[in-house]
Amino acid sequence: MKNHFSARLSTALLLAGLLCAAVGCGGDKGSSVDSKADNGNTAAVTEAATETLDERQSVSDDLPEKDYDGKTYRIMLREEYEYEFDVTETDGETINDAIYERNAEVAERFNITYDSTAYSAIWGQGIFNKAISNSVLAGDNAYDIVAGYMCDITPTITQGLYLNWYDIPNVNLEKPWWSELMVDAFTINDRVYMITGDLALSFWENMFGIAFNKGLLSSYDMEDLYTVVHEGRWTFDYMEEICRQISDDVNGDGTWDKTDMYGFASNPSTGIDAMKEAFGLHVTVKDKDGLPQFEVATDKCVEILDALSTFFDEKSGFMTEINMDTDAETMFIEDRALLLSIYFDVVENLRDMDTDFGIIPYPKWDENQASYGSTVRDNASVFLVPKTVDDPEFVGIITEALAAESYKSVVPAYYDVVLKTKASRDEDSAEMIDLIRDTIIIDFGYIHSTALNTVGHLFVQQVRAGTSNIVSAFKSAEKAAQKKLDAIVDFYYSEE
Description:
19 helices, alpha/beta, D-Maltodextrin-Binding Protein, domain 2, five-stranded mixed sheet, 2 domains, globular, single chain
């Protein structure tokens, strides 16, 4: 599907829109701060939003002045995430208007237009990947940038379809709008082919955390969880203990299902996967030469799987059925779960919940763990440059400019206004969101799981099965997976 989009607005309009959203004006469904969430902090919210904008605006993108005389910047998008770029008009909705303004600022600054092409990118269907592969191999130079599905697009990298980001002029991967951890994790032999950061709203929407029900916490006379997190005591053992106190076969029929009470509720896929990073587990780690090596079936992993098996078997936690994420959300909203595994985009679904809730990171495995660990759901957008582009400098300048403007306008709109002031209900949750963002970990082996015989998903498979047989499971897959990992590494050392 082709779509041409452009925009012209002033920066002053965006600032006014952000501050308006912060104080509760406007007409979109989320523009007014709920009375239960406001807590009299409107002035502080407005000041915080202004300070955030000022700080971000002061960071220079160091780009040269260029006039491209109406040249078109061509973007290949996922249909499911067109909203990250393809915005043709303002509609009073905070994020839509911020993206519109970002596009307009860059278009006006460099005298360009935009053209987008969208394909479906549902997991495993291959439509998106086939489209980019066919385009590049045919040499048709159809796109300047590809915004793909993080975990699903990795098999296309070794087809040699993309340029090395380090070779793209005017892109500075050390700037704050790029994910430094992503760049570090995916750089091999001074090459990195896919990156992400503030240019992808989905990168922020898909960060994981835990929501907790303040009403239940109070009813059971439990300790303030913010204090527990701050003091470094928020561990799996602590979580297990409070969950055990909550869980109850409500109707006494001896059958535990989603109508009962649980300490922890989660989907059975990415919500469980996020425990790996939280507990300091890895699919791959880099050796002294900077090469990824498998670290799947460690003694620590077996110990953790044993603990999780007991945790779910004893009904301290509840895993929903595949593709039934909303069941866990419903349980939490109806006060039948103390804790809920969330990614940030889910927080908006909880806004109308009667009981107050807070947001904290996933727990550490134990108090010896140096820091909390968070991650991003694997369907966030990543950016790749087809090797068929005829003007890498143009691609670099416009991509860097869009990323910088996202950092300065789109992320503040989402993060400081929508998430912190509309959806989260207190200042402590906002601080916890900062903590989560600052501890994001991205695992090369996990994101490449589809290209590595799915070994990146052995952990969650074991949790679902209630077993800790990951040593034997990895042994069965290791030979084929190692061969594929070797092939990936060889590609990074091949002649370009």
